[in-house]
Design brief:
The structure is a single chain. The chain is an alpha/beta fold and 288 residues long. It has one domain: Rossmann fold (3-Layer(aba) Sandwich). It has six helices and twelve strands. The strands form two sheets. A ten-stranded mixed β-sheet has the order 1-2-3-12-11-4-5-7-6-10.
């Protein structure tokens, strides 16, 4: 593995000579993206930190904003840069989860099964909402991006059969998240043949539907549920061709990179937390 300094302040580049065209950039997504030339990537697949749900232990992390509007604005600004660095026929596949208002509780207890749920802070209830309200974060973000110029093309339901149990008794247990498909232009690259699925009735291949059943995945060394490879794969297959460049500005433990290597795509991953970048490096088999 090689390391190199970038012009972006506090950024570092990780790459391996055995993976040409593949790189991990350690730094803030918005700052790094501003240094990348326009029309660089065919596709972006990503899952940013969810608002007020996880403390990833690093200053400046997305999702730690006290105001929901600040979180939405931050993502809008970041994905405006993503749109710039995409080719004219490029697409964005955005996975984002929802949450409930905290009832103005300012912290959350440690969960032994999921340490990342412990929070020293909890954002206050957003204006206009009540305690116990479902916030609707994914759609607020989706509509903000749509208003900012993105084409909102599809909302995919990620059905999670092995979802985390909840102790609630006054509503159903949540077992889904959203995956949005955005495009930069009205006409864009989408390989529908690469992601066809068997029909339930006769087994014949049909156009992929908007409900994807995919189990969550744990990854050794990560104290959070990682972006599942089976969720990422159809996004990359539909949104890019062999040797295209794929972007993930919230790289985490590197699932998008791992899938890109397997599917013969090049990738750039941007990750704020050096520990997660190191985790991704080991996952990809890059040597010191």
């Amino acid at each position: 593995m090689r390391k190199a300094s970038l012009s972006v302040q506090h950024s570092e580049l990780l790459f391996d000579m055995r993976s040409p065209g593949c790189e991990i950039i350690v730094g803030d997504a918005l700052s790094v993206l501003k240094e990348i030339p326009s029309d660089t990537f065919r596709c972006c697949v990503t899952s940013p930190p969810y608002w007020g749900l996880r403390d990833y232990g690093i200053s400046g992390q997305a999702g730690s904003e006290l105001e929901l509007g600040d979180y939405v604005e931050r993502l809008k600004d970041t994905f405006r840069e993503v749109r710039r660095v995409l080719t004219e026929d490029g697409t964005l596949w955005l996975n984002i989860g929802d949450s409930y208002t905290s009832g103005n509780r300012t912290w959350r207890d440690l969960d032994k099964k999921n340490p990342a749920r412990a929070m020293e802070y909890r954002p206050p209830t957003p204006r206009g909402l009540k305690p116990k309200d479902l916030i609707g974060v994914p759609w607020k973000v989706a509509f903000a991006l749509q208003a900012d110029g993105w084409y909102l093309r599809s909302d995919v339901i990620w059905h999670k059969p092995n979802c985390q149990p909840e102790s609630v008794k006054d509503r159903p247990t949540r077992s889904h998240e959203y995956l949005f498909l955005f495009s930069k232009s009205e006409d864009y690259f989408y390989d529908c043949e690469a992601v066809r699925e068997p029909s339930i009735s006769n087994g014949a291949q049909r156009n992929r539907r908007t409900v994807w059943t995919v189990n969550t995945e744990a990854f050794p060394g990560a104290h959070f549920a990682t972006f599942p490879a089976r969720l990422v794969e159809p996004c990359i297959l539909a949104g890019s061709a062999t040797m295209d460049r794929v972007l993930d500005p919230f790289f985490g433990s590197g699932t998008v990179g791992e899938v890109c290597v397997r599917l013969e795509r090049r990738f750039t991953g941007i990750e704020l937390n050096p520990e997660y970048a190191e985790l991704a490096r080991r996952r990809l088999g890059w040597k010191e």
